[in-house]
Structures are given as structure tokens and as C-alpha cells.
Design a protein that fits this description.
CATH superfamily of the largest domain in chain A: ATP-grasp fold, B domain
Oligomer: homodimer
Number of domains of chain A: 3
InterPro entries (chains A, B): ATP-grasp, ATP-grasp_carboxylate-amine, ATP_grasp_subdomain_1, PreATP-grasp_dom_sf, PurK, PurK_C, PurT/PurK_preATP-grasp, Rudment_hybrid_motif
Shape of chain A: globular
Number of helices of chain A: 11
Mean pLDDT of chain A: 92
Number of strands of chain A: 17
Protein name (chains A, B): N5-carboxyaminoimidazole ribonucleotide synthase
Distance between the termini of chain A: 44 Å
Structural class of chain A: alpha+beta
Strand content of chain A: 25-35%
Keywords (chains A, B): ATP-binding, Ligase, Nucleotide-binding, Purine biosynthesis
CATH topology of the largest domain in chain A: D-amino Acid Aminotransferase, Chain A, domain 1
Low-confidence stretches of chain A: 357-361
EC number (chains A, B): 6.3.4.18
Subunit structure (chains A, B): Homodimer.
Largest interface: A-B, 29 and 29 residues
Largest sheet of chain A: 9 strands, antiparallel
Order of helices and strands of chain A: EHEEHEHHHEHEEEEEEEHEEHEHEEHH
Helix content of chain A: 25-40%
């Protein structure tokens, strides 16, 4: 069984770790020759030829070449289906997709250029203005009015959202098999700084409606594989979908501590195997290692608290996800306390204060 | 941290799977360019240069170039220590090693050439004659008198052992850290056909003295890493050490279903990290996939019963270990029942009967 993965970042690398236990020939296409997944998978040079040679084609990330994915879809090999990739090409498309399924999201409007965006944002009072394409990890998002300079002069369409006061953020990671079987991993509560996930823990509580929204999303085009949906719980109690990630997801890295991770179940699903229900530890926390080179890592101390995963990226740039630490614990309180110690080991004394409370908006 | 592994078979491959989660640069030396571990690890061309460049050197198998290991030992990089590798170069040395530690083993004698071996075996009544070097998986072993033709004409020293009537075979897989901490995985009961492990399960019972013998063995030269010791329980009740394997071992493959496998703990130990105590499922069975090509594997049915691990060997030769299936269960009875189904899926209806009872001798 040959799998072609479009994109060779850490998500493909972790998928490849899990694939190495299964009888899967793992091929990766990424134009960047230093992509982490080449440490584990075989490199494809011509993506179209690789699509032809693969039994199944999947993607680890939204920012992949749509033409390659479209070709895989045409040959009946793309999982999940192309529709999910296409809505992710534009935040405006994604919002419209949620609206079409009557899934509540942050109130939004489309602006034709930056000047209209300013007018709409002005009308909302506080707003977040987002460039529709290519954004992730907080890139291309600007709080209005504070960061208005960031999108000044932008000529294309912009997404303008009301600024919502948020109590907490959580995500649901689910897997849907070809047979329609859907398994939900326990919900995770997530903590961001400047739009980048810094740590999370599971399990947390999620209201029934959140599961219902995920069902609507995956049934729309018969999703196959692992999917993540991020939610806001607003201070006024509204449950709002923020984003769908049609792939394995950072908020599901904690599932590596189960015996059927999001990565393994993604592989199982795309190859038409049955979804495996994992045995779950009482609690797991995950802490991202951002911007740190391996040499600066207090490995011994971290390993005493949890399991360190390293992505072997060529260079440690600021904010870059270099690895993560998973912490298994007897309770979420214990997991959070250990996560706090891991955060201060990685980032020093002050940093944890910033991230041990939910994101402000 | 750079690790050099001598030998590139499935044991190195599985070590590499676990290493890929840890920040370890995994280098493999094996003269065979199609060795399975090259699927995962980086290939070293010059073994002596690779020893110089590595932080730690270990081996996956006893049949490695002793000169390379000796060089690594001289540079203070070899773990476990050379002594354990050297005793494994000859079954006669190994027996003498057990005797020197007053560890009971099958009564044995050294024969100078095949004719003396016949005389000694004759005196024992039934015996097993073994060629001292290079034997594993039942190779180079002959039951006397039935298989006497196998060693006829052999000029070197031979090991002659009394034929012992065996009730069951079990093994202890343990890990010793540099700090002297020793962790024992639960004992496994093992089932062989013609000297090849076909399946096993854990946990089973092992008497106190078995643990004591392992302690003596690992303390002799301050072992570091994972070690396996195979035991016979004779019908007359004696506990006899059969073999020491100074490495990760087939009877410990079931530990991949814990959160700290024999492979991970070997890596942790050789890098001076603390041994991790795994959370253990109630029972696990392991079934070897011998001599079967991937095309002939009933993958869907196997995956419904357990987890399939595939070694990606170039060719499926008879008796060759091609992969294995791990089965997690709520009890050893359930594990054994599922193992039986896996055995008949892999080998057909008759095969299980041969191996669901302990080896005859």
C-alpha cells in the first residue's frame, strides 16, 4: 500500500512515525528539500507522477498545491475529499461554508479592500481583520484598531470579524472512516499566544452541540480521515466554530500517548481500515517547543516530566514549532501542573503566566 | 545525540521507530544494503568512521563485527559493554559464563570434534549438539541421535547438552540504566517451532530465582540497555537459563503495546536517561509472521484482531521473520484465544495445533 502525503512538515513526519509500524510505503512531496518528513518518508520528485503511483493521496496541511490534489481527486485517490481542501484556501470560503451548514461562527463580513475593511471594523467597534489566504498560526490576522497598520493598503477581499470576548478555546479531533464510523477523541482545551498554540490538555468538557457541528461538517462531503475543529466558548455562552482543519492537528498531538493516535487513525481511515478506539490515559497535556534549538533544550529535566518529540527542523526560527512534550498524568490538575513546570523549563519564569489563562480574543 | 547501531535487521528498525520520537540521530551500519533498518535510519558506510562520529554505539544482534564493537568500547561508547557481546560469540563461552556465575543451565560438555560429540551424546542417551558460533533461530542445533547427520564431519569444538524434558519456556526482558536501576517487564511465555519463536504472551509467572539470575548476569559487567534471558522450566521443576541475548529481543516485541517499549528503554538507557516504567495492558500476545510476503497477508482480518508490524524485508524466505502482530486483551486467556485466530489466519488450520503447546525439547 503506497501513500503519498502532500506536505512534509512535522505533521507528515508524525504520520510517518505511525506509518512505519504499518505495512505502508510512505512517500512525501514537498518542494522544500529540508522538510522534516524526509527524515522518515521517501521523497517524491514529480508530484503528478507520485499521485499516479500512489494508492492513496492525503495532505498534512492546507497550503499544498491544489492542482496536485485535484489530480489525485480525479483519479479517486484523494482522502479527505477535495472540497475540504478548497474551503481552506480562503477564510472567506470557510466562513461561507459554516454559514451554509448553519454552524454558528464569529459574526463576519466580506470587505472589498482595506478601506472597506476599516469602515466595517469601525462599525463593529472592535474587530479582527484577516487576510483570507495562506494564514495559519496567527499569521495574517490583525486586531482593529490596534493593529490596523498590518492590512493597510491591501487591495483584495478581507474577512472582517467582530471581536468576541472569549472564555475558553477548545477543539474536537475526530476520525471518520469510509464506512461512516466517526470516533471523537476527548476534547482538548487549548492555550494560545499571538495565535500560536502553546499548550493544551485533554480531556475537557465540550457541549453536545459542538459534536453535532462536527458531524454536519464531516457528512457534507463524506470526510475520510482525521479532522480537527476549533471552537470558541464566548463569555456570553455562545459556542462558535472558529476553524476546521481537514487533517491531523497540533491540538491532537497528545493522542500519541494513546494506543491509537490521530496519526494512526488517519492512516487507517484513508486506507479503508477500521477506526481504532484508543485506551485513554486519565489526562494528557501537550506543550509546544517553539523557536528553541535542540542544544538549548533541557532534555533531561523535560524527559523526567514527559515524553519529548523532536521534529528535526533545519533551523530554529522564532515562533517555529520545533518539537513538543507530552505529559501523561492521573488527573487534568496534575497534567496542568506538570505542563506549567515544562513551560518554565522551556521558556523561563515569566512565560507561563502569559499562557496559563485562556487567550483574550 | 548520535547513535550508531551495528546491524540493520528488524530489531534495529524497531529501535529506529522509537528513536524517531526522541531527539536521536539514528545511524545504522550493516554490510547488507537492503537491511530493513535503512528504511528508517541513516546508513553508515565506514563503520570505524561512524564509531568516531557517534556519541553512543550499540548493537541489535550478536553477529556483528567484533572489531568495530571493540573500537567503540575502546572509545568508551559501546553499550552494553563488550564482555556481553564476546560471550555470545560462542555457545561454549556463554555456558562457561553461566557456570562462572553459578547460574544453572542445561548440563553441558565441550567436545573436540564431531566424533567426541557422538561419544558424549551417546553417554547422555538423548542430547542436543550445537555448533558454538553463529547460531540463532534454531540454526546449528541437532538433536542426537535423530539429527546426528547434521554435525557429522565437523572438526571444531562442539557443545553437547543433555536433552531436558521441558514443561515450558519463558523469558525475562529487563532494562538496566547507567545508574544501576533495573526494570523487569512482566515475564513472557514463549512457543517455538524448530527453534524459531512463533508466538508468545505476557504476563506469565516466573520464579524469584529467575530474577536473581538476571541480576547476576547484568551486574557482572554493569550492563546498560535492554537484555533478554531465556529460561527452561524442566518437567522435574528445575529452572535453567538457556540463553542471554544482550539486546532487544523477539520475546519483548509485545512491549510495543506499552508506553515504554523495550526499544525505547534501550535507547533511554544507552543515552543515560532514566528508565521509564510502562503502563501495562492486562495481557498482550505476539505472533510472528514467518516466511509470508505482504501480498499473502490477510491484513484486514489481522488488523481487526491486533496491530500488524511489518519489517519490509526485500524477500520472503521460508522461516524468515517478516513482521509480527501484537494483540492487546483483557486477560491472558483472551490474548491466547486471539493469538490462535491470528495463527490460523496466517498459517492455515493445522499450524496452530503444533504451536499452542510448549516446545518438546
Amino acid at each position: 500500500m503506497r501513500l503519498l502525503v502532500l506536505g512534509g512538515g512535522q505533521l507528515a513526519l508524525m504520520m510517518c512515525w505511525e506509518a512505519s509500524r504499518l505495512p505502508i510505503d510512505f512517500v512525501v512531496y514537498d518542494p522544500d528539500s529540508s522538510a522534516p518528513a524526509f527524515r522518515c518518508g521517501r521523497r517524491a520528485v514529480d508530484p503528478f507522477a507520485a499521485v499516479e503511483e500512489a494508492d492513496v493521496v492525503t495532505f498534512e496541511f492546507e497550503n499544498v498545491d491544489v492542482e496536485v490534489a485535484r489530480y489525485a481527486e480525479r483519479l479517486g485517490k484523494l482522502k479527505p475529499p477535495l472540497g475540504y481542501l478548497l474551503v481552506k484556501k480562503s477564510r472567506l470560503e470557510e466562513r461561507a461554508f459554516f454559514d451554509s451548514l448553519k454552524i454558528p461562527t464569529v459574526p463576519w463580513r466580506r470587505a472589498r479592500g482595506w478601506e472597506e475593511a476599516v469602515r466595517i471594523a469601525e462599525g463593529m467597534g472592535r474587530a479582527v481583520v484577516k487576510i483570507p489566504a495562506g494564514g495559519y498560526d496567527g499569521k495574517g490576522q490583525f486586531i482593529y484598531p490596534r493593529e490596523a497598520a498590518g492590512f493597510r493598503g491591501y487591495g483584495g477581499d478581507l474577512l472582517v470579524e467582530e471581536y468576541v470576548d472569549i472564555r475558553r478555546e477548545f477543539s474536537l479531533v475526530a476520525v471518520r472512516g469510509e464506512d461512516g464510523d466517526v470516533y471523537f477523541y476527548p476534547p482538548a482545551e487549548n492555550f494560545y499566544v499571538d495565535g500560536i498554540l502553546v499548550w493544551n490538555y485533554a480531556p475537557t468538557k465540550a457541549p453536545e452541540e459542538a459534536y453535532e457541528y462536527v458531524h454536519r461538517l464531516v457528512e457534507r462531503w463524506r470526510y475520510v480521515g482525521t479532522v480537527a475543529v476549533e471552537f470558541f466558548e464566548a463569555r456570553d455562552g455562545r459556542i462558535l466554530v472558529n476553524e476546521i482543519a481537514p487533517r491531523v492537528h497540533n491540538t491532537g498531538h497528545w493522542t500519541l500517548e494513546t494506543d491509537a493516535s490521530q496519526f494512526e487513525n488517519h492512516l487507517r481511515a484513508v486506507f479503508g481500515m477500521r477506526i481504532r478506539r484508543p485506551r485513554l490515559p486519565p489526562a494528557v497535556a501537550m506543550v509546544n517547543i517553539l523557536g528553541l534549538s535542540f542544544e538549548r533544550l533541557p532534555l533531561g529535566e523535560l524527559e523526567a516530566l514527559g515524553r519529548v518529540y523532536w521534529y528535526f527542523k533545519a533551523e530554529a526560527r522564532p515562533r517555529r514549532k520545533m518539537g513538543h512534550v507530552n505529559i501523561v498524568a492521573g488527573s487534568v490538575e496534575e497534567a496542568a501542573a506538570k505542563a506549567r513546570r515544562v513551560l518554565s523549563l522551556i521558556y523561563g519564569r515569566e512565560f507561563p503566566k502569559l499562557v496559563m489563562r485562556p487567550r483574550g480574543g
